[in-house]
Structures are given as structure tokens and as C-alpha cells.
């Protein structure tokens, strides 16, 4: 009895000792003991605003937070990044100490764009290749008369234009430094335009700019109220490498120089003209059968049915078409394209708000070509409901992007559970999905969780699911969050899905 008692006490002592040792070892393993390399990797997942907060924790974290490897891509526009630099002296110190040779991309607001800052960037950041200069809120420019240096390795330059400040004094100083540019963004003030007519200023000299940038591959002129066909002609006369031209929301563009553009720019494969003032007679003069165009956006233009038939039947290898909000796009156009054109290479189609297309015509087209589509947008049409989608989803097995529904109130209800179930069964490659239907039109039941589970488990590549804010959105969001997929479900107010993700130059076209 005593021996057994002694054994038990001894065993208990050993167990206590083991637990104590284990506890002491566990206690010693804290985040402070992690190697600097591991901490640096953890910090790399944080935005710069959060990294700055982490720098206040302790001296070690401060050293990690200020490692130049974490400051390769920097936005100093407070409305974008939350970072605010209080003075030019502070920025100059940052350029020398924190940015240095690691800096690849920087965004500067108007108050930080001075000749001293640009000179320091040129001297201290030799690997800077991407730059955004935001002049959009400028009422007066700094004096650039003493500007003698500018980053010379830039491949990407984005300039947000002011409505009233003329840029030529600044541009003259940098022309000699930017001849290596491959991607140019000029961002206008389209979203700020008021209804009443105001005097339009040509705040940047595009004709001189094109002479300084002969190596451009991608040109994006977005929402600039003075850009017209002569500016397109100017770029085409000098930029023989041009692959992608975007003039979305430049409403003075009519297409009168497109024939010349394609004759000069033989490499042009992407043309984006959403919201322009295209004239049918100009587009019908273009030699479409001789061009290399693969990606075409003519959304919200006023082209005639005759013009659309003429273009689509002559374009030899179209892969991407956005042609929504066009009254002339009707059943006859779609039928002519199938019978006389070549839609066999098509992988992306957006027909948003094409009210003159019938359900039957869309169904026949998709029966023939739906299997090859990676993206399909049939939004904004009240006559296209879940019944059509239920019938075509089995055909869309290769779809990565789907946009469906309208925010107009419908007289019929959309059966969300059945729709989700069909999407999950048919479209396993789906990456982005948007349901635009009004929440009051969505009908779901106690079995909704099962349908959402099926979608989540089957569509493992799904990155974004956008829904109108409402009860069904809350159910779907909670379901994905329970499975630790926190960023997938979003509201339409914060995220709209587009087929633009499939553009070959999509990453080059992105700007803030």
C-alpha cells in the first residue's frame, strides 16, 4: 500500500514537473521571439496606415515597420491610403531613410508635388517605375522653374488633371525624362461635371505630349472634357507600339479618326470607348476586316443597328465585347453576327440594359456560343429573369464572371435558392458573381443555408459575390464568414462586377 502510494506520489510529481516544464516553454514562445524575417513577412500583409500603428508598440517593431521592403508601393494621398505627411521636410526625410532604392510606385497629392520632392525621388529612388501625380484639386501649381531632375525609369505615369490649371509649364520640364513611358493615364474631371455648360480648358497639351512618349503601349484618357478625335490622331501618328487605347467618357470623341488609327497602329488590339459620342457614319468607314482588334467597348453610345451589323460582321477575331445601353443593338444585329460574322473567338460579352434584345434571341445565341464564354453580363433588363438563367447556366460551364439582375422592381419574384443551386452545379470555375435584383424581389426559404453552402463548397475560386443590401445579403455574408471567407460577399454600393477583369491590359489600366 505504501509502495503504491509512493509510486502514485512520484508519478504525480513527474506529471506536475512535465506540465510545469511544458508551461514554462510555452510561456517563453511569444511574438517577440519570432525572427525578424517572419515578422517582416507578417507586416507585409498590413496596409501602411496599420504598419505605422505597429511602429508605436516597441523599438523592435519600429525597426521592422520602417524596413524599406515594406515601402515599395506607397500612396501619400490621405483619401486613398489614410497616410498624411505633414510637411515637405518630413517627406524628404522619408524618401531618404524609408523609401530609397526599394521604392517602385508612389502617389503624390498636389501639395507634395514640388521640384525638391521630384529631385529627391530622382536621386534617391533609382528603381521608381510607377508614379501618380494628383493635380485634380489644384487651384495653383508650385513653381517648377528650377526643376532639373525627374525619375528617368518610369514605365507608368498617371496624371490626374485639374479643371482650371494649365499643366504645360510643368510638362515642359519633364518631357526629356519620360520617353521610356509605356503606360500613360490622363484622368479628367468627368465625375465632377455639372449640368450647366462651363468654359472648357485644354489644360494639357496632348499634341506635344505624344512627341515625348513614342514608346507608349497603353493610353488611358478617362473623362477628359476637351479630348476629341484630333488627340487620338496625334497619339496614333507617333505611338507605333500602341496596343490599348481607352477614351471612356470623353464625350467629344466621335470616331472620325478611327480609320487612320487602325491604319497606323497595327498592334492595336483593345479599344475602349464607353460613353463617347460615336457617329455611325465614321465607324462604317473603318476597315474592320484588316484590323487586329480583339477587345471592344462601345457601351452607352448611340450607334445604329446598321452600323453595329456592319462592324460585327467584319471584325475577324473579336474576343471581348461590351455593347450595353445601345438602343440599336437588337435581335437582327445578334442574328447577323451569328450568321455572317465570326463570334467563335468570343469569351466575354456584356449586354447591360439592352432592352431591344429579346429573351429568345439571347437564348439562341448562347446555345450556340455560351460554352466558350468566360464572362457574361445580362443585367439591367426587366424581361431577363431567373428563368432564362436557369436554362442557360448548364451551357456556361466555363464562366468566370456572371452579372445578372436589375435593380428595377419586378412584377415577378426571383427564386434565390434554386438559382444559387444551379450556379453551384454548373459553374465551378466562377470567380465573380453579381446579383443586382432588388431585395424585395428575392424569394428564399429555410433551405437557403443549404443552397449557399453548396455554392461556397462547389465554387472554391469565388473571390467576389455582390448583392443588394438586405436580408438575403446578411444571410449569405454570415454563411461565408463562418467558413472564414471574410472578403467574398459585398454589397453593390461598395463593389460592382465587370467583365473588364478579362482585358489583356487590365492591370495596366487600373488607376485610383
State the low-pLDDT regions, or none. 1-16
Number of strands: 18
Beta content: 5-15%
Helix content: 25-40%
| Terminal-residue CA separation | 81 Å
Structural class: alpha/beta
Number of contiguous helices: 20
Largest sheet: 16 strands, parallel
Give the neighbour order of strands across the main sheet. 1-2-3-4-5-6-7-8-9-10-11-12-13-15-17-18
Specify the overall morphology: globular
Rg computed from alpha carbons, rounded to a whole number of angstroms: 28 Å
Would you tell me the overall average pLDDT?
90
Task: Give the SSE map.
Elements: H1 2-28, H2 36-43, H3 48-54, H4 59-65, E1 73-75, H5 78-81, H6 88-99, E2 105-109, H7 115-124, E3 130-134, E4 156-160, H8 168-174, E5 183-187, H9 206-212, E6 218-222, H10 229-238, E7 244-246, H11 258-264, E8 270-272, H12 280-283, E9 295-297, H13 305-314, E10 320-322, H14 331-340, E11 348-350, H15 359-369, E12 375-379, H16 386-392, E13 401-405, E14 414-415, H17 416-426, E15 432-435, E16 442-443, H18 448-458, E17 464-467, H19 471-482, E18 489-491, H20 506-509
Parallel strand pairs: 1-2, 2-3, 3-4, 4-5, 5-6, 6-7, 7-8, 8-9, 9-10, 10-11, 11-12, 12-13, 13-15, 14-16, 15-17, 17-18
